[in-house]
Amino acid sequence: MKNIGFIGWRGMVGSVLMDRMQAENDFSGLSPVFFSTSQAGQAGPDIGVGPQPLQDAFDIAILAGLDAIVTCQGGDYTRVVHPQLRAAGWEGYWIDAASSLRMEEDSLIILDPVNRAVIDRGIENGVKDFIGANCTVSLMLMGVHGLFNNNWVEWISSMTYQSASGAGAENMIELIQQMGVLGRSCTPGQSALELEQVVSGKMRGTEFPQEQFGTALAGSLIPWIDRCMDNGQTREEWKGENETHKILQGERFIPIDGQCVRVGAMRCHSQALTIKLNADVPLADIEAAITGANEWVQLVPNEKAATLAQLTPISVSGQLHISVGRLRKMTIGPEYLTCFTVGDQLLWGAAEPLRRMLLILAGR
Ligand code: HSE
Predict the structure, then answer these.
(1) Share of the chain above pLDDT 90, in %
(2) 247 lines ligand 1 (CB under 6 A)
(3) Ligand 1: nearest atom to the Cα of 350
(4) Where would I find the H helices in 169-312?
(5) Model-level pTM?
(6) Which residues are paired to 69 by β-bridges?
(7) How far apart are the first and last CA of the chain?
(8) Alpha-carbon span 247 to 147, nearest angstrom
């Protein structure tokens, strides 16, 4: 497997993917072809061999000549191009960050540190569509899949604190614009209450930048992510349980539910988990299971200094580790565990599983 097409490499997830692939020398031995949905013919990125002209991302004949396609272009592109390619008889591998194909019967959701056995079985059985999970789901599983491995989890309630990056690049910019407006409202000598009045007035005003979020995120929060499902969940909340089940493909369906909330973090998603265990597992065994599950999970002692230094979005931002802390048994009972986890939404939450899937398929 050598000829790999890249679509959507210039967007936010795509750019992070390109950076990671270059940092890890992933392009060596591959013949990448870069595509554009709007700028075919212009110069593509230079990954060390000089820039090649961009190909047309809607040209089915060119796409069908590839061994694999990696796309971060988004769901609309997938919905248009993937069916045409398959209808044309293309049997290459489709690796996708978008959610459109995630729950299709013949696709797999990829998170190899967690479900490598599922992925290997899928490849053997001829699966061709490998789709990255929802970021919140990936980050939760990267943090606590040691508990799932031991079959200790009866159910989970996840309360999320999701960054602006999950909503998109424009939203990240708008968050900072909102912060800028608020910062400029501050005049020396004002009391806290006077300042609050001024700032709240700005946030409620018609001139406050809120085209993307529809309301203030800076100085506030938004307890709604994605569209409404029939049962009152948001789709983001629905994904928690359903994608987890598809990733793990375990025999038991583990109930997972909670509230997904957008907060003013830039690119790290955090989650407060309440985990009902099916036994009174000693905390030391729990810690060992969590830390032993993968090389990226980093256990943070349940202490203030360590929490401030290692368990905040800013301490994890741009890095590959997943911090898990505030771990303790709850006063509700010995089978109730709580913890807090933070991971970079663009790395393990989006780009990292894609580049690793490509390497698995390339036999590296
Ligand atoms: N849906 C997620 C969010 C990001 O809005 O934060 C993509 O997985």
Answers:
(1) 96
(2) no
(3) 8
(4) 169-184, 192-204, 235-248, 283-292, 304-310
(5) 0.96
(6) 5, 94
(7) 11
(8) 15
